[in-house]
Amino acid sequence: MISEKKGRYICSLFRKIMEIFQPYQTFQSKDEFVDFTTLLNDHHIEFETEDYPINFISDIRNDRFSHEYIIKLKPDDFDRVDNIQEKLVLAQLDDVPQDYYLFSYSNDELIDILHAKDEWNRFDYVLARDILDQRGVSITDQELSLINTDRIEQLAEPEKHAPFWVTAGYISAALGGLLGIMIGWHLYNATKVLPNGVKIAVYAAKDRNHGFRIFILGIVMLVVALVVRVLSNTP
Questions:
Q1: Are the CB atoms for 30 and 64 separated by under 8 Å?
Q2: Please, are residues 218 and 177 in contact by the beta-carbon 8 Å criterion?
Q3: What is the pTM for the complete model shown?
């Protein structure tokens, strides 16, 4: 029998294993990146970070922008951090200059911003809603929730079938080329993270099945090619 203490420990360990951090936001400015990590720490939100160069040759004068800095959060924290950022933006709206470019947008263009939240920074998204409200076009929280749900469903749709890559993958794999293995692995394993933090497969099940077969075929044919080469060179 497992004691209650051991059971709690096992459950806690299992939860830790299942807690996967997903990319939430990317920065090219180290100062903005540091400010954001400070914000997360102030609100006691767990996160992970990654950074890597975006240029092979870094110009010292532009060193601040020679890297991409990635913040990764637990999916359950995505909405919470969204709300924190939006509250901060709301506090800044009174200081927005009247020549800010969004003020020249039509109502339809501003509504388009609300429908593509993931494509805009948090400031512009919140400001677009505020401008609409000032113009008498009120978007309720319930309507925004429905808009965001529709957007998630739209982004969750798998990529359209790519017969060229499937065909190229089978041909390359049959020839024992590494390209076929790479194409197969990509079709089978490629994933994307939705704005709500959920990770899903990029391609539909049919294409992923093709990708798996291409990957296996490529490995088998590569091994065969290597064995044939070794045997042909054996005296």
A1: yes
A2: yes
A3: 0.69
Angle between helices 30-42 and 78-90 in degrees, nearest 10: 110
Q: What's the token pair of residue 85?
A: 């950022």
Contact 45, 73 (CB under 8 A): yes
- What whole-number distance in Å separates Cα of residue 112 and Cα of residue 182? 37
φ/ψ of 199, rounded to 5, equals -95, 130
Beta bridge partners of 67: 53
User: Are the beta carbons of 36 and 47 closer than 8 angstroms?
Assistant: no
Phi then psi for 232, rounded to 5 degrees?
A: -70, -25
Quick: pLDDT tens for 184-232: 999 999 988 888 888 889 999 999 999 999 999 999 998 888 888 887 7
Question: What is the edge-to-edge ordering of all strands in the sheet holding 22-27?
Answer: 22-27, 67-73, 47-53
Structure tokens at 10: 């096992």
As a residue count, the chain comes to: 235
**Which position has the token pair 């990529």?**
159
